Amino acid sequence: MRTDAHNFLIKGITLVGHKLVDSITSDKNWNEVKDYSKENSLPLTISMISRLASELF
To answer: Which DSSP string do the residues of 6-51 spell out, in sequence order?
Structure first.
């Protein structure tokens, strides 16, 4: 059996969570969040990803 770290199951998500996922679903947006975080030495935590996504998009 192959385990893929990129696949997972979400059983419940809030409206805020849906908005976050929607904002970073495209590779372009996700890469922009990661690049900005790396360039500014910011941690890649859920709260930081959410903050950056709301500021960038």
So the answer is: T--------HHHHHHHHHH-SHHHHHHHHHHHHHTT----HHHHHH
Q: Which among 16, 15, 23, 22 is positioned nearest to 56, based on CA atoms?
A: 23
| Cα 43 to Cα 31: distance, rounded to the nearest angstrom | 15
What is the pLDDT averaged over residues 2-19?
A: 78
Q: How far is CA 27 from CA 23, 30, 33, in A?
A: 10, 5, 10
For the beta carbon of residue 53, count every other beta carbon within 10 angstroms: 20
CA distance 17 to 1: 30
Q: What is the pTM of this model?
A: 0.73
**d(Cα 55, Cα 3) in Å, to the nearest integer?**
34
